[in-house]
Design goal:
alpha/beta, seven-stranded mixed β-sheet, binds calcium ion
Length: 220
Amino acid sequence: MSSRSLSLSQTLQDYVSAVGVRPDPLLERLRAETATLEWGRMQISAEQGALMDLLLRLMGARQAIEVGTFTGYSALVTARALGPTGRLVACDINPETTAIARRYWAEAGLADRIDLRLAPALDTLDGLLADGGEGRFDFAFVDADKPAYGAYYERLLRLIRPGGLIAVDNTLWSGKVADPSENEPSTVALRAFNRMLHGDSRVEMALIPIGDGLSLARKR
Ligand code: CA
């Protein structure tokens, strides 16, 4: 689902993988280990990781939040790009997949840069807001339960600073968002989220057809 971009042939995808992303043995091992899991297809594509790395460095981002950590690939990419003074708050509820994440973060020397919160993400985000976190973050990445995307987005929009960026994964959902015959709850939620973001005058936005769709929103 998210291991290749929509409508790229396998040949072209292989080409992108070969010359579009720099080799990274640690990330490749994490990809391989994650691929053996039941939900292994949930990890972001390598080229999407490279794009996020570039965006974070362009922004000079130092403080980030992630909603949905899984086995830690995007968190590793993010924390590394934040630099030694950076901090990532990573939200997830699964102790098993995040145990894999912690192993790779430690190996990458990033363990002290990542603050993993094993709790429902809305509770963590509300806690950050209650602790005076409003406007304190540069970047947020959302890759979690789709029906809650709107709720995550509203909190993250308060937590990031003006000029900060929210990146939202899976917004093309294997193309189902554009197929009116598809109406399971995640599809309906993503369709509503995409419409909302398109009309949201609080941000500049673009939906990038990379991986399974990555929506970018910059807070005005
Ligand atoms: Ca995803």
